[in-house]
Write a structure and sequence with these properties.
Structural class: alpha/beta
CATH architecture of one domain: 3-Layer(aba) Sandwich
Order of helices and strands: EHEHEHEHEHHHH
Helix content: 40-55%
Number of helices: 8
Strand order of the largest sheet: 3-2-1-4-5
CATH superfamily of one domain: HUPs
CATH topology of one domain: Rossmann fold
Distance between the termini: 79 Å
Number of strands: 5
Radius of gyration: 19 Å
Largest sheet: 5 strands, parallel
Strand content: 15-25%
Amino acid sequence: MAGSSTRHNPKHHLAIYPGSFDPPTLGHLDVLCRARRLFDEVVVAVGRNPDKPDFFPIEERIALLEPLVAEIVMREPDGARVSVSTYSGLTVDFARTCGASGIIRGIRNVTDLASECQLAITNRQVAGVETVFVVTGEAYAFLSSSLIRQIAAFGGSMEKLKPFVPPNVAQAIGEKLNDPNHSLARLALETQAD
């Protein structure tokens, strides 16, 4: 209508990017960078996987992620705003609490796709929250936090981890390996003894 000052304000699209991030990898950061182009705001939602023992306590994961996220936002200021938060319980409940319009899931390969599709359908039926699959870069197609923990536990050098994790994470893993009270250091010693 001519002369009308009414403007259409598009909905603010917030997504959560959930995971254990134990430890954070370059694959996680790659997915985050890609997701920032799709949404107005992204919450990196650090949760605890009850099926796996913690490598890094959740507070340490947050401390590792926050400077990495700040660096990404500074390097690419036109992307979505990003924050880091913790949650417990169901991911869909956290998504609803945040007012998220989507859940971001990184897809590395067809195995991921099969399991993630089933979860995405369930999340949509149970909570009405859509899942957005972001395919990771080719360099990270087989990278996972579990793989990083295995490399470290079986005596992999920090040099071998450099292509897979940010420097602050490699340093933190090295500190864990040098702590005789940490389960990873004990496992590494047992492996070397075998």
